[in-house]
Amino acid sequence: MGTVWTEEMLDSNAGPVPVRIYRGCALAKAPPLVLHLHGGAFLGGSLETGQQVATLLAEAGAVVVAADYTHAAGQPFPAALQFSFGLLGCLCKGRARLADKKSPLYVAGEEAGGNLAAGLALKARDLHMGGLQGQILLSPMLDPCMATGSFRKADMPVTNCRWVDGWNRYLGFASKACHPYAAPSYCMRLAGVAPALVVSAEDDPMRDESVNYARRLREADVVVHEHILAGQTGWPAAYSNYTGTQPEWGETVRGFFTEFFQETGTPSPLNQIV
C-alpha cells in the first residue's frame, strides 16, 4: 500500500531518541498521529519486530512514530513507562511538525507494548494530558498472575516462560505488581481514560486478560471497540514476523484500525500537557 518509513531523532526529557516514522501514500489533511510501542515481553523486541503492526497502522491512514524502549525496559518499572510518557509528550507538543496541528493523538502497542500503552492512557488521564484520543491494545500484557483460562489452554511452561521472566524483570519487586500503571488489570479506577481498541485472538494466551480489561473499561463508561480473531493466528509471536507480505489477519486488523480512527478521531482542543 505504499507505506514508507524514515529514521529521525526526537528530543525528549531523556535526550535525543531515535524513532521510525511511518507514513502511507495517501494521508488525510489531519491524519491520526500514533506513538507505537513494540512487543518483546520486556525482554527484547526492536523497531524491526514492531514493523508489522506499525505498517498496518500507517496503512490505516496514520502517521506512526515507532519508538524502541528496550534500554529502559532493562530497568524495573517505572523506567520504560516514564521514557514512553516523555515521548508521548513530544508527539503531543510536536504534532504540527510530525503530522498536522489538528491531528488526533493515539498510543498503540502489542504485548509488552500494549502494557505500556494502557499504562500511558491511565497516566495521561491522571496528569491531565490533553489531546489523547485513543489507546490501541493488541494482546496486551495486563495481568502478571497469568492464571487465566487462555494461559492455561496455551500450556505455558512453568520454567523458562518468556512472559514470566518478562514480568519479573519489569516489576522488579512484588510490591510494584499492584501499581495500576504497571499492571493495568489491577487498576480500580478506569473512568475517564481514552477510548480503547482491544484486539486479541482465540489462540492468544493474553486473550482472557484482554477481554476482562475491555469489559471493565465498558463498565467504567469508556468507549471500547473489542475484537477477537477466530482461528490460528500465532499471536503474539506473529506480530514480529514481518516479511513484507501481509499476514492472513492483516487486512482485518487494518480495518479495525481504520474504523477506530474514524469513530474517535475528533481532536480535543487541549493539545498541551498541563
Automatic annotation (TrEMBL):
UniProt-listed InterPro entries: AB_hydrolase_3 (IPR013094), AB_hydrolase_fold (IPR029058), GDXG_lipolytic_enzyme (IPR050300)
Top-level taxon of the source organism: Bacteria
UniProt domain Alpha/beta hydrolase fold-3: residue ranges: 34-231
Keywords of this entry: Hydrolase
GO MF: hydrolase activity
Database matches in Pfam families: Abhydrolase_3
Name of the molecule in the record: Alpha/beta hydrolase fold-3 domain-containing protein
Native source organism of the sequence: Phyllobacterium phragmitis
